[in-house]
Each structure stands twice: as C-alpha cells, then as structure tokens.
Design a protein that fits this description.
With 340 residues, the protein is mostly helical. It has twelve helices and four strands.
Length: 340
C-alpha cells in the first residue's frame, strides 16, 4: 500500500471531515458513535532534525518572544539539563496554538527554570514519602502471607497462586533479580544454604515494587488479599490500583521525569466508601494532586504523626509562582478532610 493522505468522511463527534494518514499497517478502531469498523493509518517519516547548540537555542527562544535575563546562565542550564528535558517547563508559557512555539508576552526563561527546580524538589518530597510506603508494603506482604500460610518460602510456591501462567512469568522476573543481585545478604544465603530461593522476607527486599504487586494480585486466597489490603484500610481492588499508581510515581521520580503537571496514564480506582478521611469526589483522579493524596493516605496509616502536609506547604510557599491548579489542587486544598 502506498503511503498517502486521504480523507475519510465521518460524522458524530469527529465532525464532517477527518484527515488520516496511511502506512503499511492499518490499525482497527471501533467507535459506538460512528458504528462499524474502520482503520486508522499513521504515516512515518525520517527524523531530519539536526543538532542545535545551547547558544543557538537560546537565540531561537529569544526570537520567539522569551525574555532571557541572564544569557550565560540560560546557556549553562541548557548545556547541563538539555533542551529536550527543559522544554517541558517552557511549554506552559507558549501562546495558543502551542504548535506555533511563540511565547506569551512577559514570559521569562527564569520562570521556566523556577518551575524546573520546583519539580525537582517535588520529586524529592514525594520519593521520601514513597520510600516509607514501599518499605511498609514489602514488609506487610512478605510477612503477613508467611504468617498466615506457615510457609516462609511462599513467594516461590506455585500452589499459592491463582494463575499458573502469571506465576511463571513472575518467577522469570524473580530469577533475573536474584541472579543479578549483588546484595551481601543474598550472597551469604547462596553460600550457606542449599535452598533454591531465600525466604519471603529476604527475597522481597531485592524485588521491584511492580513485581511485589504482581505477586500480591495473583494470590489465590482472596481472604488473604483482603487481610493485606485491610492493613491499609482499603478494599482489594483499590489497594491494587493505588499500589500501581505509587509504583508509577516512584519510577517517574527515580528517572527524574516531570511530575508537577503530568496527567496519569492510568486512572486510579476511586475510593467510594471509607472509614477514614478522604477527599472530595470532584477532584480529578488523573492529576498530580490525586497521586499526592494517595501517598498521604498510606503515610497517615504508616506514620500517623507525619508532617507531610507541612513539607508540602513549605514547598509551595517557596515557589509562589507555580500554578498548583495545573497539578489538580482544588481551592482551599488544606480544608479537604484528608489534609485537615
């Protein structure tokens, strides 16, 4: 099939005309409003952009309307941070349509740099709380199942899991982590004991949180899964969903990626009934504030005397120009039941 651009007549919410591109591999798309089945085609082209020096980029940004208060500092920032990473913090300052890459009147490079530094400190704050949650989750899952089943090697016992195929795939990941581990306690276990695997409380320490979540989700005993979730005052589906969100936020922080106004790729499950203080239903579950609230929920249970609210307030006061509404913060967020 030759690559070309064609016009597809569609009605409904797509409007009278929709322009799609074709390529060799069509992808089917189903839509109840349109009815039937049709194919969307995408056209790929060669990446033809060349390298541009930080000095040249600063010049281009200036021509597009961005105020550069300190040229040398701006060049140094791009040299060390990289324009591709930094451009995400320039994006809020662009005029509509964003594709023109023109800046709003009064936009300053220093404000984008301030936003970058805020995001860095936000990641540090969140990761500090996630560390406490992750340690508690590992300990709870490993030890509670061992206690209930009497099997200290339960993580590698196929009889305790619901889906055999999922168990095999998880074990492949476990084997990879165990083989590559350089931890002294793992080396000591291998040298001293003949068991194929360490006990659960030891094995869980070298597994990524995502693997621990997979292990939990595949437990055959639903009553046991409920007991683990109840430790954090949550039903099983919400517990599994929120652990996934925590894992995604953790990975974002670890890779130094943008957090402050990022939209969730996976929508966390909503908590409808709770014996504990939560937040208003109108708050978007797809924004950063909802993720922060999930962390606060766990932290309040793990460490009731925590000062997460104080740390968050201090961070926001240090960066008064940051638009917290873009993060999903409601007005008077401190008055939400969870944060009182």
């Amino acid at each position: 099939m030759k690559k070309n651009i064609f016009q597809l007549q569609m009605f409904g919410r797509y409007g009278k005309n929709a322009y799609l591109c074709s390529t060799r591999t069509p992808k089917p798309l189903y839509n109840a409003q349109i009815g039937g089945r049709f194919f969307i085609y995408t056209m790929t082209v060669n990446f033809d952009k060349s390298y541009t020096s930080p000095e040249s980029i600063i010049g281009i940004l200036y021509e597009r309307g961005l105020n550069i208060d300190d040229h040398s500092l701006a060049v140094n920032i791009l040299r060390n941070v990289g324009y591709y990473r930094f451009s995400a913090y320039l994006y809020p300052f662009l005029t509509l349509p964003k594709e023109r890459h023109l800046f709003k009147q009064g936009s300053h490079f220093s404000r984008a740099w301030e936003l970058y530094r805020f995001d860095k400190k936000l990641r540090m704050l969140l990761f500090n709380e996630i560390e406490k949650i992750e340690v508690a989750l590992r300990s709870t899952v490993a030890n509670m199942v061992a206690e209930e089943t009497g099997n200290i090697f339960w993580m590698t016992d196929s009889s305790l899991f619901a889906n055999e195929d999922k168990f095999r795939k998880t074990m492949a990941l476990v084997d990879k982590e165990l083989k590559g581990s350089k931890e002294d306690f793992i080396k000591h276990f291998k040298n001293k004991y003949s068991n194929d695997y360490p006990p659960a409380w030891m094995l869980v320490e070298i597994l990524p949180l995502g693997i621990v979540t997979r292990i939990y989700d595949n437990l055959a005993d639903n009553a046991l899964r409920k007991k683990i979730a109840a430790r954090f005052l949550l039903p099983v589906p919400v517990f599994s969903s929120w652990i996934t969100i925590i894992t995604l936020v953790r990975n974002t922080c670890c890779h130094h990626s943008r957090v402050w106004n990022k939209e969730n790729a996976i929508t966390p499950m909503l908590l409808k009934k709770t014996p504990y203080r939560w937040i208003s239903k109108q708050i978007s579950p797809n924004r950063t504030f909802y993720d922060v609230c999930i962390l606060k929920w766990f932290i309040d249970i793990i460490s009731p005397e925590n000062d997460m609210k104080g740390h968050l307030k201090n961070l926001l006061s240090d960066f008064p120009h940051v638009d917290i509404a873009a993060m999903g913060f409601p007005k008077n967020w401190e008055e939400e039941p969870l944060w009182k």
